[in-house]
Design goal:
With about 220 residues, the protein is α/β, with parallel strands linked by helices. The chain has ten helices and six strands.
């Protein structure tokens, strides 16, 4: 039986964290936003129609695993699909050396590769950046750097963020608002800090408690 989303409606202002356990429907929402599954989305990104929005370049995705997002046999520059000057500009904004453009993915660290795919996503000047748990495979220091860079890029370029995650700590550092997803339903939403401090639903409290326990364990 396929997974479904039930009356799943939300607005993204500046930054929204979509939080839920595996199988809650987070990835399905990303697929719907990218036009990869049947959907009856109502959208408004200053476009004349949903078709123009989906087929245009208003939305970009940063995948969870950069190793599977890039071809191992092709140099980074040839996967950017941008003018070299633009690639160098984006690399500079992400703290990446321009010489990395001439290298292959297996010659870069995981943190470098994650920033490369962020640069690729931003190359189309999106209005909305979809982040599919891009910090999961990063260590603590790299995770902090990534969050700071995303916030700086958002300030400079003016895009909105939809951040899919199960990590409340990272969500709190990156996003202003939150939607909690359970079995395809949004069961709680609001300002992230308020929801974390005073969750109304037992499921939300379980997610928060589990996240704090995991962080203590990682220490």
């Amino acid at each position: 039986m396929g997974r479904t989303l039930v009356d799943c409606s939300f607005e993204i202002d500046r930054s929204l964290a979509l939080v839920g356990e595996s199988g809650s429907g987070k990835s399905l929402i990303l697929k719907a936003l990218l036009g990869l599954c049947d959907t009856a989305l109502e959208i408004d990104l200053q476009k004349r129609s949903p078709f123009e929005w989906i087929r245009g370049k208003s939305v970009a995705l940063v995948p969870q695993n950069p190793f599977t997002a890039l071809s191992p046999l092709t140099k980074i520059e040839d996967q950017m699909f941008l003018a070299r000057e633009r690639s160098l500009e984006l690399f500079g904004m992400l703290g990446l050396d321009g010489s990395l453009l001439s290298r292959y993915p297996n010659e870069l660290s995981g943190g470098q590769l994650q920033r490369v795919v962020v640069a690729m996503a931003l190359g189309s000047n999106p209005k909305l950046l979809l982040l599919d748990e891009p910090t999961t495979a990063l260590d603590g220091e790299s995770r902090t750097v990534m969050i700071q860079q995303l916030l700086s890029l958002q300030e400079a370029l003016g895009f909105s963020i939809l951040f899919v995650t199960h990590d409340m700590g990272v969500a709190a550092a990156l996003c202003e608002d939150i939607c909690v997803l359970q079995k395809g339903n949004i069961i709680e939403s609001g300002k992230l800090n308020k929801v974390v401090e005073t969750p109304m639903m037992p499921y939300t409290r379980q997610l928060i408690e589990a996240d704090f326990k995991n962080r203590e364990y990682r220490k």
